[in-house]
Amino acid sequence: MKIFSLAALVAVTTVGTVLTAEPATAAQECPAGWACLKLGTSGSGPFLMFNDENWRALDNSAGTAGVTLINNQGAGDDACVATGLAGTGQVFCVQPRQVATVEFIVRSVRG
Question: Which pLDDT tens digit goes with each residue over 26-76?
Fold first, then answer.
């Protein structure tokens, strides 16, 4: 399993994932203590909130391409997305107070 952090931008882009910074307002949309996921490449899809360490499948068997991952949780609590179910495949995580957009197909999430 590959795990990437926001600091690993070079490694992420070499495997075909595009990572972009999001405006501070994205973090303001996600309540304190929660991790949030905006679905769709434009962020116009559903907005999901989660705050536990269990991997959850997205309610879409084909997965969702292009998501914005917002981590508004406390210190030491990362938020992650994965290309496979139950956190398998390529995994991408952000630390608290970080926001990132990933362009790969996301099938599971945890906070």
Answer: 556 899 999 998 887 666 677 889 998 999 988 655 566 788 899 999 999
Looking at residue 67, its pLDDT comes to 86
Contact between residue 94 and residue 71 where contact means Cβ atoms under 8 Å apart: yes
Q: Are 42 and 75 in contact (CB under 8 A)?
A: no
Which residue do the tokens 């599971």 mark?
108
Domains of the chain: 2-110 (2.60.20)
